[in-house]
Amino acid sequence: MKTLHKLVLATLILTSLTSKGQQEKNPNVFLITLDGVRWQDVFTGIDTNLLNSNYTHNKELLISKYVGKSEEENRKMLMPFFWNTIAKEGQLHGNRTKGSTVDLTNKMLFSYPGYNEILTGKADDEHINSNDKNYNKNVTLLETANASELYRGKVAAFASWDVFPFIINDKRSGVPVNAGYMDAVGALNEKEKFLNEIQRQAPIIWESVRLDVFTHHFAKEYIQKEHPKLVYIAYGETDDFAHEGAFDFYMKSLQNTDALIADLWEYVQNDTFYKDNTYFIITTDHGRGDGVAESSKWTSHGADVQGAEHTWLAIIGPGISKKGEVSNEQLFTNQVAPTVAEILKLETNATNTPAKPLELN
Questions:
Q1: Out of 10-24, 115-129, 166-180, 267-281, which region has the weakest mean confidence (pLDDT)?
Q2: Cα–Cα distance, 324 to 87 (Å, whole number)
Q3: Where is the signal peptide (predicted)?
Q4: Is the pLDDT assigned to residue 98 strictly greater than 50?
């Protein structure tokens, strides 16, 4: 009997170790979104029309920080990680001046519908037509991953906007979501306790959106402790600064977000769990206008704003061909979810995610 017990115990241990080894071998994905960032800002750098408009309050400072001798230099000054790292080691899609177009398929052209499209691979204009805090009836790729054997308990989401628990449907999906001004929970380290303490002591500009630096560090602490396989991080400041017409802060926030993503990438490249086995997929939930007229107003987006359907996409990782800035193509935002599913080898319902994955090679 003792021999049988030992055999059973050994089998269980071997099965556990095999499962753990398989889980660690499978790739990791960091899906990252920047709210309401235009393709123009990513690919051409600072908008000189907006720089010279009433939206700018300190023109000289912006010129010193973001204006070089060419558009190529401008975009490197604004987003150095994108153009010094991703452009060399990965792919950038969405420069419409080079015939690379990335578009939304939903017709709402604002945040909740955009995030639903990114996370589920399908627009749902019938049911998702507001930013109200309604639990999403659609199943996101985060929920699909968390329900799978390989990724159960290895999925997490961090967001600046407090609507994300509803978008991800944390109650049904079981995916841990830290969003808005939610505190970190569980067995906390000293840094997490400190973040809990200070996130509401810092200036509260918007009650529904916390500063991205807190979202970033809550995410990074969790990642270091738990090593999730699929992480979703939704930075939010850029859209809110743009809505307020604060072009100075929009530019600074975009540069800061680029630096936060660079910080995550550097961590990943120095962590044995993630190194050489992790993909970053970065995009936005919608575009916005490029002018001052109501039909194309930079501060706005939505179905009545020209250009709000135009997005962009950046990818870097071990299985990604180094194409850099891609030209002459048509991609859609609904391809993000099936692409993540393909990387993670997740089984999805084809009727729920009809879009084709991106060709990464």
A1: 10-24
A2: 4
A3: 1-21
A4: yes
141 contacts 337 by C-beta, under 8 angstroms: yes
Nearest to 166 by CA among 111, 203, 207, 206: 111
Q: How far is CA 212 from CA 29, 35, 179, 181, 195, in A?
A: 20, 11, 10, 11, 12
68: enclosing H helix or E strand? none
DSSP H helical segments within 26-120, as ranges?
A: 39-44, 48-51, 59-66, 71-78, 80-81, 87-89, 111-120
The ranges assigned to domains in the chain are: 27-344
113 is written with which tokens? 């519908």
Q: Which CATH architecture has domain 27-344?
A: 3-Layer(aba) Sandwich (3.40)
Predicted TM-score (pTM) of this structure:
0.93
Whether 175 has a pLDDT exceeding 70, the answer reads: yes
Backbone angles phi, psi at 101, to 5 degrees: -120, 135
β-strand 313-316 against 91-93: which pairing, if any? antiparallel
pLDDT in tens, 289-314: 998 888 899 999 999 999 999 999 99
